[in-house]
Each structure stands twice: as structure tokens, then as C-alpha cells.
């Protein structure tokens, strides 16, 4: 049994030979016998869809996903803060099944909660306020009524800022996922394991409160290091993808 977890691929639009070759190789070779591949958010550097339109040229990337899906590879997306609008259009174009903010699986009887992870960084109230504004009812109305060319302009600006600033990573690392918030979500779904991304720094941590405990795994960065987390039915192993591993900055 092989379940593969990835996060924060931050795929860029347009011609990206290095990025796309790496993705194709990963899906065809590394994932060949996988029972499930789970993208834990921020699969795209920025994805916005509305009706039958999306921003940016992701045709080649979507074709790579579609080919893998056609060969029978089961792929799932649990959206992050950069692709939370992914929905029906994304599903039909990619062949990837899209879930809500949290998704629970139970391979070999282990209940695993899958999430991007940003919702549990609750000590950063400014980020949480921004998140609420963007993903909540206000953001939904704005996205529905904003003229499409304006939306396109904003998203293309984000897509063109190719590197995630170092300070952003440093901030995330210092703030990190809050034990109480993560355990609350795990308890709600009766899960003893949480697998998430968002932080970009791999790691594992035992979470403990007086009435509940569990393990948290943060997946390695795929975009730069080619890393992912694998579950074989017994244990979780952080793994480095084999070549080609071309970094896209
Ligand atoms: Mn994120």
C-alpha cells in the first residue's frame, strides 16, 4: 500500500519545461503503483476559477494531470490559501477530485486528517482575518461580481511573483501550527494523525492536550526539493523524489 502526500507545489502558468517535466515524471514513475495521491493545498501558485473560466495558461499542467487520471491514478486536492476557489472546473479539467478544507481518509484503519494547515495557525490573527475575508462570504460575493478582467489582473500579478519571500517562510515557521487548534479538528473527525503543508518546512510533532493527543506530519517542499511524505500502511516516511528534479524559481 502506498499513499503519497504532497503540498505547496506552487505550479506556475505558461511554458515551464522544468516544472512540467518534473511533474510528469513524478506522476508517471514515482506514483505509478500508488493507491492515492493527495495534494494538500497550494498546488498552484494562484488558481482562480469562475464558471467555465480560469486565470492563466495551465493547459499543459492540466493535460499532465488528466493523462495520469486516465491511467487510473487516484488524485485528490484539499485546497490551500492559493487555490481555495478550485472546484468543478478544476475537477473536470484535471481529473483530480477536489475536497473541502479538511478531508479524512482511513487506509489500513488509521484515520488521517488531511488539510492545508493554515487554518490551524491561529496565533497569527492578521493572517486569519485576511483568510476569513478572502475565503468567507465577503470574498465569495466579491469574486462573483468583480469584472473578470480585474480579477484576471490581480491573479496574474500574484502568479508573476514567482518566489515566495523568505520573510513569509520565516514568519510561518515561527508562528507554526497551534496544537490546540489542530487537535480540535482531529478530535472532531476522530483522527489520531494530521498530515498538512503550508509551512514549507517538513517535520513531525506529537500533539498533546489533556483530553486528546495525536501525531502531526508536515510534508516536505516539493517545488524546490522534490520531497513528499509516504504512508505504507505502517509508518510515515518523508521521501525525496528521484531525478529529474529541476528547481523552478
Ligand atoms: Mn499555503
Can you walk me through this structure?
The structure is a single chain. The protein has a single domain (3-240), classed as Purple Acid Phosphatase, chain A, domain 2, CATH 3.60.21.10. The chain is globular, with a radius of gyration of 17 Å. α1 runs parallel beside α2. The longest helix is centred in the first third of the chain and has 14 residues, at 17-30. The protein is of the alpha/beta class and 249 residues long. 36% of the residues lie in helices and 21% in strands. It has a six-stranded mixed β-sheet with strand order 6-5-2-1-12-13. It has a five-stranded mixed β-sheet with strand order 7-8-9-11-10, with helices on one face. The chain has a two-stranded antiparallel ribbon with strand order 3-4. The protein contains nine helices and 13 strands. Bound molecules: manganese (II) ion. Residues 41-42, 80-81, 116, 118, 198 line the site of manganese (II) ion (MN).
Brief description of this entry?
The radius of gyration is 17 Å and the shape is globular. It is an alpha/beta fold and 249 residues long. The protein has nine helices and 13 strands.
Layout of strands and helices, then pairs:
Blueprint: E1 3-6, H1 17-30, E2 36-39, E3 49-50, E4 53-54, H2 59-70, E5 75-77, H3 88-94, E6 97-98, E7 102-105, E8 112-115, H4 125-135, H5 137-145, H6 148-160, H7 166-175, H8 179-188, E9 193-196, E10 203-209, E11 212-218, H9 222-225, E12 227-231, E13 236-240
Parallel strand pairs: 1-2, 2-5, 5-6, 8-9, 9-11
Antiparallel strand pairs: 1-12, 3-4, 7-8, 10-11, 12-13
Helix pairs in contact: 1-2, 4-5
Bound molecules: manganese (II) ion (MN).
